[in-house]
Amino acid sequence: MKSHTLSDLIAQGEHQQQDFKYEISSVSKIAHSISAFANTDGGRLLIGVRDNGKIAGVRSEEEMYMIDAAATSYCCPPVKCQWETVTENGHTVLIVTIDRSENRPVRAKEQDGSKKAYVRIKDENIVASPVHLELWRKYALQNGSFIQFTERQRNIFKLLSEKPEGYTLNQFYKKSGLNREKAIKMLANFIYLGIAEMVFRDHTFYFIEKSPE
């Protein structure tokens, strides 16, 4: 933990790069957290800590195997995790550190066999938007291609400045006259170029013009 003690970490509470888990009862659910951290800014899981920060301790070695299964068998591509155990007042806490993946998206296998990518926003794991998926595809290509706006694209981008609160994906493609697939690609282009951004509000992703820094 470098210079941080377990007490220091717990005092931070749950946030975008930290999640408390009292116990591991579902491999697929813990895979959601691993996927979210790997797709966002990385983070750590404190296993054996209640939501209120009270230390309960890891209940069995089986939980360690379940985390390993979540990272290697329930995440695609598999995610490498770093492990550390800390014992305090007779209770052992397992600290699992997940780095941001270079191979996004990392998808988590669901109980029904489907696979979904998650992102971490504040202290929640949220299913990634289709625009996230397209944006990660562009980042993976990294071809430095120049995107030249047509007059139509410029007019479509103006829609974002006309509605400061932003559009949902469905609102945007209906307003723009684009089909859904083209709207996803265009929003990803805008974000890739740094002129638009995604914000998460009321459990919904909105797309807005990015304010100059």
Structural summary, described in words:
The protein is α+β, with helices and mostly antiparallel strands. It folds into two domains: 6-127, Methyltransferase, Cobalt-precorrin-4 Transmethylase, Domain 2; 130-209, Arc Repressor Mutant, subunit A (Orthogonal Bundle), CATH 1.10.10.10. The chain contains seven helices and ten strands. It has helices at 6-12, 27-39, 61-72, 130-141, 151-162, 169-176, 180-192; strands at residues 18-21, 43-47, 75-76, 81-88, 91-98, 107-109, 115-121, 124-127, 196-201, 204-209. The strands form three sheets. The protein has a four-stranded mixed beta sheet, with helices on both faces. Helix 2 links the parallel strand 1 (18-21) and strand 2. It is elongated, with a radius of gyration of 20 Å. It starts with 5 loop residues before the first helix and ends with a strand.
